[in-house]
Amino acid sequence: MKAKALAITGVLGYSGRYMAGEARERGYRVLGLTNSRYRSNPGNIRLAPLSWDDPARLAASLQGCDVLLNTYWVRFNHRKFSHEQAVAHTKILFHAAREADVKRIVHVSITNPDPQSGLSYFRGKAQLEEELASLGVPFSILRPAVLFGEQEGEDILLNNMAWVLRHFPLVLVFGKGDYEVRPIHVRDLAQLAVREAGRNDTENLVIDAVGPDSLTFRGLFEELGHAIGASRPVIGTPYWAVPLVHAATTLLGFLHGDVMLTRDEIRGLTENRLASSAPASGTTSLRAWIREHGASLGLAYSSELARR
Known about the structure:
Number of strands: 13
Number of helices: 11
Strand content: 15-25%
Low-confidence stretches: none
Helix content: 25-40%
Order of helices and strands: EHEEHEHEHEEHEEEHEEHEHHHH
CATH architecture of the largest domain: 3-Layer(aba) Sandwich
Shape: globular
Radius of gyration: 19 Å
CATH class of the largest domain: Alpha Beta
Number of domains: 2
């Protein structure tokens, strides 16, 4: 029996690389869809371009693939890319998959998407979930909050929080810092995604892809501080001071040629959009992982734009 073929977007990036590795370990054939051919391809994965301006070519690339596993997205709006553009591109990808007779789409979304949200990230993710539901192709939607692991500097949020702790005498958080995050290890997400890709039924599923540990934002700084040996006072700020804290993170990002934290990301945090009460779908403890990797976290700043 011929092995199932998976097409995976972002296959040379963060989560997509782990999904490709997991799929190949399970005997699947993998096609990588990417526009980042300058990145290293250590697994010698067969690649095809994400031809946004040529949907017919994109559909032809997907011919013979049983499942599309989609990680494509952008973290923030930038002069070179935007959430609106990412929504339009992903819709083209979904329709190309249907044209190519792909049997299932596994799509990586976000916790708490909302079509009415004033935040383009969460609104755009909700629009794509609605598009997928109307497509007529069986799907699994995975909703992670934050990823962590595996190699040094890959998990940008945790690494740069540790970097701040190593370089500054105190930490300012927005409000009380009592909003929660529910991260999942990148390998747990990869295993979940490939498991869903292996389904042979037509059931549509929506799964909060979250780990076993839920921490407040303040608690996450405290956990990191203990692990790296750089515990700092974590001081809450009134919400009227958020623009000042955002200005400080903007300056730090500018000094590294990066965007450290956007105003919308601050709102998403404080609106508890990275929280979830769902059962854990990953098994790796964030607390245990931080303790194990504390010595290497935050030694160097990790740049989102440099990764792109």
